[in-house]
Amino acid sequence: MAEFLFADDSTAVLQGWQAPGALDLNAAFLRAGGWALPRTEAFPDATRLKERLQELAASVRSNGKLGLDLRGLRGGTEGVLAAAREAGVAFLLHTADLSPAMQSLLGVNVPRMVAVENEDEANLARAQGASAFLAPADKVQSLNHHGLPILAIAENSAQARQGMEAGAFGFQPRSPALLDETSIPEFTSRLMYGLGEANEMLLRKGPGTMPRLRIRNLDLSYPIQQGGMGVGVSWEGLAGAVAREGCVGLVSAIGTGYHPSARTARRFGRPDGTMSLNPPAALDTILRAALERAEGHGAVGVNILCAIEGYEATVRAAVASGAQMIVSGAGLPLALPDYVGDADVALVPIVSSARALSVICKQWQRKYNRLPDAVVLEGPESGGHQGFSPEQCVDPAFTVENLLPSVLAERDKWGDFPVLVAGGVWDRADILRFMALGASGVQMGTRFIGTFECDAHSNFKETILKAEADDIVLMKSPVGMPARGVRTALQSRMKQAPRPRFAA
Ligand SMILES: Cc1cc2nc3c(=O)[nH]c(=O)nc-3n(C[C@H](O)[C@H](O)[C@H](O)COP(=O)(O)O)c2cc1C
To answer: For domain 3-205, which CATH number applies: 3.90.940.20, 3.40.640.10, 3.20.20.70, 3.40.50.700?
Structure first.
């Protein structure tokens, strides 16, 4: 058995998860002599990143090293690199496959650790002057011939041992449980020292304190699904980041013609015609980018409204591009299993009543011998369009709490697939409350909009962040349906003047 299991102080321990709550895990790793790995993705601008890195640099002790994870960086490379250099960052972590915007990274005078999964990536990384590899534990042996130091990614103690025995100089435990399982007691006690009891609890909790969620063969660390939000609110940035944390991230398939990658016909600056509005090629780019950001964690799915033109083509495109789940509402997705065929993709309808679920199950069972892999019950507190009349939206009989028992009873008639609750879920207490009522998890939308990772325009985010409870109103959306959103000048303008025609 490798010596490292018995507190070898020279074993590098790279931070492999983010801390829950307010715990500063980066600083804790540095104080313990570990290798901290803040993520650039979490910083909206280089000035704040620099301040944070400088603050962290002051915490480095003994063998500790301050790294910077560049994976997920979407631009502003120069500013980020300048911030890293000025703060004295000891190493940068990035992937072998670099976008043109990231190429300048190769000239920087800071050691670079490159995350590689196979020989091709390792060859590329070495040719680009990598100083070290970060690789899955079972790949360490086969990558040794490159002669570069390798840090092993370990999901469990067996992998940690495998990586170290194969010659890795350290490992990256991917969950706090491994701190105990791999018996690196001196590092673990240094990490805990000074945290205080509450923070120690917080640190030990890590992922898994809430029940996990299983949908088909997707094993999720948290019972949380981020709802698809169009147009352009949940694309690769948000869905990829949510999935990377072990949840379900949903890319929105509507209006992908507005995505910067879309090369489609435009008129007055807008996508022209159905295939330009929802082009499969843009969905493919978005989905693949989201899957890349997820790095194999959680699940990345696609939200496809039944009501969009080209629904079938969009479903087929999503499957071909690697969607792990398809979530469909705004109508009953009665033919969805037909379009998906034998592909191993979780199918999740969104319903607003037990009756809708019954109709879907009946049809899917009869025609396709298939049932939903999960169902989302979306109540009238949800952001965006409503599956209810304006009167029902304010009728207590239609609160999600009151609808849930009948939906659970309907589910029980068919099987034991999970029921997720959506609409007005805001925090941990809400999640636990709905789970106590029988839900297996939740779908949340609005809560994610104010995040840096969300793909919406910053003005849209600001509007949500500044909104008070009174600003949230039920309104008629521009397409004439009831919707819940923030009251802005747009609504008063729409009330005063007839809405513009959508004709070409
Ligand atoms: C801005 C916005 C856009 C949305 N767009 C869609 C959409 O395109 N398709 C869909 O099925 N649901 C859409 N939703 C609903 C969300 O997926 C989710 O179910 C809902 O936001 C949950 O309620 P919450 O906002 O209270 O968390 C949207 C919600 C918001 C806030």
So the answer is: 3.20.20.70
Pocket test for ligand 1, best of 235, 286, 386, 446 (most atoms within 8 A of CB): 446
Q: Report which ligand 1 atom has the smallest distance to the Cα of 447.
A: 27
Tens digit of pLDDT for each residue in 244-267?
999 999 999 999 998 988 887 888
List of the chain residues with pLDDT < 50: 1-8, 207-208, 504
CA separation for the pair 460, 57 (Å, rounded)? 34
Q: Same CATH topology for 3-205 and 213-496? A: yes
For the domain bounded by 213-496, which CATH number is listed?
Answer: 3.20.20.70
Q: For 443-485, write each residue's pLDDT tens digit.
A: 999 999 999 999 999 999 999 999 988 888 888 887 778 888 8
In sequence order, the 6+-apart residues with CB closer than 8 A to the CB of 342 are none
Nearest atom in ligand 1 to 484's CA: 31
Q: How far is the CA of 378 from the centre of ligand 1 (A)?
A: 9
- Distance, C-alpha 169 to centroid of its chain: 30
Q: Write down the residue that tokens 């049932």 correspond to.
A: 371
pLDDT at 198: 60
| Ligand 1 atom with least separation from CA of 327 | 11
CA of 280 to the centre of ligand 1 (A): 21
Q: Rounded to 5 degrees, what angle do the CA atoms 29, 34, 38 make? A: 55
Measured distance CA(323)–CA(342) in Å, rounded: 13
Which residues sit with their C-beta closer than 6 Å to ligand 1? 227-230, 233, 252, 254, 303, 305, 329-330, 350, 378, 381-384, 422-425, 443-447
Measure the CA–CA gap between 313 and 290, rounded to whole angstroms. 20
Residue with the nearest Cα to atom 19 of ligand 1? Answer: 227
Residue nearest to atom 14 of ligand 1 (CA): 229
Do residues 133 and 143 touch, judged by C-beta distance below 8 A? yes
Distance 230 CA to ligand 1 centre (A): 8
- Those residues whose C-beta lies under 8 Å from the C-beta of residue 26, and which sit 6 or more positions away, are 15, 36, 37, 38, 56, 59, 66
Sign of CA dihedral 488, 490, 493, 498: negative
At residue 8, the pLDDT reads 46
Annotated domain spans of the chain: 3-205, 213-496
